[in-house]
Amino acid sequence: MDSFTPMQADDPTYSSAIRGGWHLLKNQFKTLWPALLIFIFLIGIGFAIDSIINLSGPTYVHLWQFPLFLWITLLDMGLFYLLAKSLTGQSWHIGDLLWAFKRGEAWVLALIYAVIGSVLGAYSGMPMVQPGQKLPADWFMHQQIWIMFIPLMLLGVFFGYVFMLYSAYGLNAKMSMTSSLGILGKKWKWLFFPFILAAILILVFIGVGIFFAIFFGILFFLVKYLGFMLVGKIVLALLGVVLLIALEMAILIWTFGSMLIATGTLMDTGSMHDKLVP
Prior knowledge:
With about 280 residues, this protein is mainly α. It has helices spanning about 15-55, 65-85, 105-120, 145-170, 175-180, 195-225, 230-265. This is DUF898 family protein. Keywords: Membrane, Transmembrane, Transmembrane helix. It comes from Acidithiobacillus sulfurivorans.
């Protein structure tokens, strides 16, 4: 097993965590992008298999969410482990993405999250949307969706910190869950940190969307003017896909890097003897 020195407990602020994520993106994107590309590909495989199963058994759509939750969660923990190595200047390899698949405690945490997430989704009372169907215009008007929003939000934030404490800071499963409860206590402000990142991303998307619209509008005009319409459309489509994938990778590095740094404030430094170093 590869040696790994976990990230150390810290007391970051919102701004320092965000700056740390940006520093990771700015300095490590050139080295991290192959791992992020593989990560996105593996996540895509999970969604593709889930879609195929849903088409063959649409009656049990909620049931098929369980293996998808499990797959994504284990891959997320592997990515957190890899990014933690990068943040601390340790050597890593793309195989680290599968790190959680080889650890019993990682499976336990992923199973807990997958079971709870699947059950909440199955018994939420939200209207079903079959594969291939369009989302109804009034879907977000259903009361059940907003009733389930708060528990699902808390669940995602809580387990996000759990997985990061386990994967990046070396805490065992029990201590990871106990320490993450800090977001419901004296460290409650970190409950809102993921939503601060989401708000920043919305602003970024608006700016990037405007830039892309102008950029591709100019390119489309040029290829049409020069008479290379068919070839131009193909080139523009490929360029758009590449740029979107690059943007997605950049977002993952920045947001997960910021979250990993922020997670340090939840770790109880008085219980370091309980940690499990991978």
